[in-house]
């Protein structure tokens, strides 16, 4: 049993080493410390543990706890079909981050090659959709990444378009989380409603029950925000001539699908007015 734990932990460290990550899962232990020729005493332990470890059993328990955590994360990664070393490393960083800043900084340290950096957004969105309860941690982290590098924004758009294609076969919880995720990204102005340009919201034949429900949840989530934000969100797609088809689709969808929710009538009127705001005047 002990050998199995060591093997999994070592494999985890090897994955990180290959990707040149400084901070590995064993908290407080980094590669500079690992390779330091002047290591003394219980150098492998975080300072707070090393100072209180008075006997071998306590040290062993501390190490076992970290190794078990690594093992559990790798098992979870496998269950979520993280089938490459890059995807596993990204998954473990996102899922073990102390907060979005911690995860963001560690993701930046990954020396991903070629198209591997595109996996960051795909893994992030998948983690969000797999949660039992929607967690804004993922949208905040996604916004931070997009702010840092516009390539993440492009990757995210393509990722969302792929998920839109799967709506008819998507589980309800995943669909709900995806709708909230997109609404959050639009409301934070990380993305615009132009992300919906691949969807024909005015085509009744395409608006199956599941697709209709999904986009209704998305718009209703946006309409929960203050009027000024709603105005600015819809104005963003009002000033681009190339998005005329999208504007038509949104107006159609709001009028015949979403507007049945009478409690949001004023929000709908505001949105439709903003879609005609070709001058782009913001609130």
From TrEMBL:
PROSITE patterns: MI. Residues 85-201 form the MI domain. GO terms for cellular component: nucleolus. InterPro entries: CWC22_splicing_factor, Initiation_fac_eIF4g_MI. Keywords: Nucleus, Translation regulation. SMART domains: MA3 (SM00544). Signal peptide: none annotated. It is found in: Nucleus. One of its GO terms (molecular function) is RNA binding. One of its GO terms (biological process) is regulation of translation. PANTHER family: CELL CYCLE CONTROL PROTEIN CWF22-RELATED, NUCLEOLAR MIF4G DOMAIN-CONTAINING PROTEIN 1. This is MI domain-containing protein.
């Amino acid at each position: 049993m002990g050998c199995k734990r060591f093997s999994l932990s070592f494999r985890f460290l090897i994955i990180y080493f290959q990707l040149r990550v400084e901070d590995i899962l064993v908290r407080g232990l980094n590669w500079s410390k690992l390779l330091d020729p002047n290591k003394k005493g219980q150098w492998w332990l975080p300072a707070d543990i090393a100072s209180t470890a008075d006997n071998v059993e306590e040290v062993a328990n501390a190490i076992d706890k970290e190794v078990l955590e690594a093992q559990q994360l790798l098992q979870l990664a496998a269950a979520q079909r993280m089938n490459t070393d890059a995807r596993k490393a990204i998954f473990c960083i996102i899922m073990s981050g102390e907060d979005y800043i911690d995860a963001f900084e560690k993701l930046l340290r990954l020396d991903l090659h070629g198209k591997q950096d595109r996996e960051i957004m795909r893994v992030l969105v998948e983690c969000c959709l797999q949660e039992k309860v929607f967690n804004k941690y993922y949208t905040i982290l996604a916004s931070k990444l997009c702010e840092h590098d516009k390539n993440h924004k492009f990757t995210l758009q393509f990722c969302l378009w792929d998920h839109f294609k799967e709506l008819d076969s998507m589980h309800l919880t995943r669909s709900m989380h995806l709708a909230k995720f997109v609404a959050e990204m639009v409301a934070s102005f990380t993305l615009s409603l132009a992300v919906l340009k691949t969807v024909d919201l005015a085509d009744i034949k395409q608006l199956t029950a599941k697709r209709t429900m999904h986009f209704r949840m998305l718009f209703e989530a946006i309409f929960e925000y203050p009027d000024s934000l709603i105005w600015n969100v819809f104005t963003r797609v009002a000033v681009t001539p190339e998005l005329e088809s999208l504007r038509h689709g949104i107006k159609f969808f709001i009028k015949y699908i979403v507007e049945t929710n009478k409690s949001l009538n004023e929000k709908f009127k505001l949105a439709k007015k903003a879609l005609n705001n070709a001058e782009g005047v913001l609130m």
